[in-house]
Amino acid sequence: MGSSTETAAVERGDIRVALVHLGCARNLIDSENILGRLGAEGFVLTGAVEDADVAVLNTCSFIGPAREESEDAIRNLLGKKESGSLRGVIVAGCLPEKFREEVEERFSGVDAFLGLSDYSGIARVVEEVLRGREIRPGAGGRAPQGKEETLRLLQTPSSYAYLRPSHGCDHECAFCIIPAIRGRQASKPLEAVENEARGLVAQGVREIVLV
User: What are phi and psi of 115, to 5 degrees?
Assistant: First the structure.
C-alpha cells in the first residue's frame, strides 16, 4: 500500500511544473531544453508559479547583480514553499554550477541544485524531489558540450529562435567568468548544427540567431 501511495503522489500527468528563467540567450536555450524534456516526459507545464507543484529556477551568475537577482528569486520561491503553495523548489544553471557549496549552505530549503548539463535527467529529479529523496550531484544529466539540442520548447516569439553552435570559451578575460562556469569551448559537429537549424525552420522560425 505504501508503494502505491508513493507512485500516485508523483503521477507525471498530475504534476504541474513552472520554470522561472533568468539570464542570457544561452541560458534561455537551457531553459527551453528543461521545458522540452519535462513536457516530453508527461509533466503539465504552467507559466504561473502560483499554479505549480514544483518550480524550476534557471539561474544566472555572470555578474554581481545577476547573482543577486538569482538569490532573490530563490528566496521568493522558498517563501512560496514555506507557505504551502509549492511542494518543491529546484535551482539549476550557472549559480549552482559555480557556487554550489555556498548556495547549498545558504538555501537549505531548496530540494535540488543542478549545475549545467543537458538536463536529460530533469524529469527523474522532479519525481525524486516529490518523494522527498536526496538528489545527488550530477543528477540533472550529462555534460552539454558538443551535443545536438533538438528537444527544446521554444520561448522566443515565433519569428525567431536562438541556436548555439558551441559551448564554453577558451579565453580567460579578466572581466568574465564564463570559462569558469561553462568550461572550455566545445563545438558541435556541423551536422548537429544543420539538424537543429532545419528543425527550427520546420517549426516556422524565420530568423535564427547564433549565440
Answer: -75, -175
Strand partners of residue 194: none
Residue 176 pLDDT greater than 90, yes or no: no
Per residue in 112-158, pLDDT tens? 999 998 899 999 999 999 999 888 777 777 766 667 898 999 999 99
Rounded to two decimals, the pTM is 0.90
Classify residue 140: in a domain, yes or no.
no
142 in a structural domain: no
Does one domain contain both 94 and 167? no
Pairwise CA distance, residues 9 & 205, whole Å? 38
Grid cell, residue 169, equals 570559451
What domain range is 18 assigned to? Answer: 2-130
Find the helix or strand (DSSP H, E) in which 57 lies. strand 54-59
Distances in Å between the alpha carbon of 87 and those of 95, 102, 166?
A: 22, 23, 36
Does residue 68 sit in the same domain as residue 15? yes
* Integer Rg of the chain from CA: 17
Tell me the C-alpha distance between 60 and 69, whole Å. Answer: 8
**Torsion on CA atoms 146, 150, 151, 153, rounded to nearest 10:** 110
pLDDT, one tens digit per residue, over 1-15 is 333 334 445 688 999
Q: What is the dihedral of CA 208, 148, 39, 210, to 10 degrees?
A: -20
146, part of any domain: no
